[in-house]
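Worked Example 4.2. Consider the chain below.
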Amino acid sequence: MFRLIKTLIIISIMSVFLITAGCTHYSKVPDYSLHSQPSDYVMANKIDLSIALFQSEEFRKAKWEIHVAGDTFLLEIGQQLAKNSNELASILFKNVITTDAAAGKTNGRIDALLTPRVVAFEKTIIFLEWKLEDKENNLIWVDTVKGEGKATTPQKDEETNRMLLSDLFRNSFQAMKSSPEIRKFADALKK
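Applying the procedure from the previous section yields the following structure tokens:
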């Protein structure tokens, strides 16, 4: 009798553990290039600046992690953010050097340092801050751009995840392209 009660207690504890234990759902972002969407990134003339694009380790390893009802949804997007930010900078600016070094530790002549940073992930939105500083670390321009998706959690559907990042980089392109502060800085260097 005691053995039966002990077995039932163990089964009950194991059942509670199995019911409350969540799963981790991994999602992927397809490897895609901004150059595959040329109509979204039209520039008559590149901005006449040589920039160093600083990509921190935190940026390159960014993850979108959401916890819902004991489950974890995980989308590792850092590599794709790094790739697309490099492509975006190359579309916008005359010369681009990508670095993971702190400001001032780049080889070659640069006019400014461009730094992207993931600010937040919210249900269907990713927020990315772009900051442009001169060589002396004086702020030229800063803006936080959002990319919106359709899903409330990272999806196994790679196309949905790609659409989120496409929106983010289209909006980033427009913000930098239309920035009067960036143009004014570039014009001042020509004089």
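Helices lie at 2-20, 57-60, 78-92, 158-177, 180-190. The chain has five helices and eight strands. Compare this with Example 4.1 before moving on.
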